[in-house]
Amino acid sequence: MRRKILVLLGPPGAGKGTVGATLAKIYHWLLVSCGDLLREAIRKGTKTGKMARQFVEKGELVPDRLVLELIGERLQRENPVGGFIIDGFPRTLNQAEQFDHLAEGVPYAVIYLKASDDFLINRLAQRRICESCGAIYHLVNIPPRHSGVCDACGGRLIQRDDDRPEVIKNRLEVYHRQTAALLDYYRSRGILFEVSGEGKLENTINEIQEKCAL
Ligand code: AMP
Fold it and tell me: Which of 21, 146, 162, 180 lies 20 to 30 Å from 128, alpha-carbon distance?
C-alpha cells in the first residue's frame, strides 16, 4: 500500500527541513514543519506564539499541548491528495502516542536522519533561512545565487536566533534527552528507516526513495 505520511525524525541540523522540502516538491505532498508553524505563530504574536517563544529561544521543547494543537489544526485544515511530510514532530513519546490518534490509522513511515554532533554544530553555524518564505540555505553547500538574498522569493536571509552556538548546544542535549527515545519506539514497530544525514542531499533522497519504496 502506498504510504500517505512520512515523518522526518533526527537531531537539529540533520537536514529534515531541506529533505522535507525536496520530497514535497518531487511528490507534491504537503510539507508540515512544526518549527515553521511555531516560528510563524511567534512572528504573528498569536496566543500560542507568545507562550511558545521563551522555549524556542532557549532551544527547549515547547509544551506538548501547544504543539499538538498547532499540528492537529494544520493536519485537519488540508487534505492533500498525495499525503503529508511532517518535519520535526513528534519529538516526545507523548507526542508520538498522540500522533497515532491524529493519523487515524493512516500508515506512516519514519525516516531517521542520522548525523554526529560535531557535524551538526558545523552545519547549523552555516545555515541561513529566508525570513519571508523559510527556504533553507547553507553558506557553503547550498549558497544563494546572491549573497543574503533568497533565490525563491527575494527575501532577506538571516541566521535563526536558535542557531547561535550556545543555543545549538542545548538543542542537541534536548534532542538526546527527549527525542532519541522515539527511535526505539518506532524501531520496535518496524516503521523506522535509517538514512545518513551527512551526505549530499541527492544521495539522502535516493536512499529514502529506495528504503521507503517511494
Ligand atoms: P526546528 O525548526 O525543528 O529545529 O524547531 C525549532 C524549535 O521549535 C525547537 O528547538 C523547539 O523549541 C521547537 N519545536 C519544534 N518542533 C517541536 C516539537 N515537536 N515539540 C516541541 N517543540 C518543538
Answer: 180
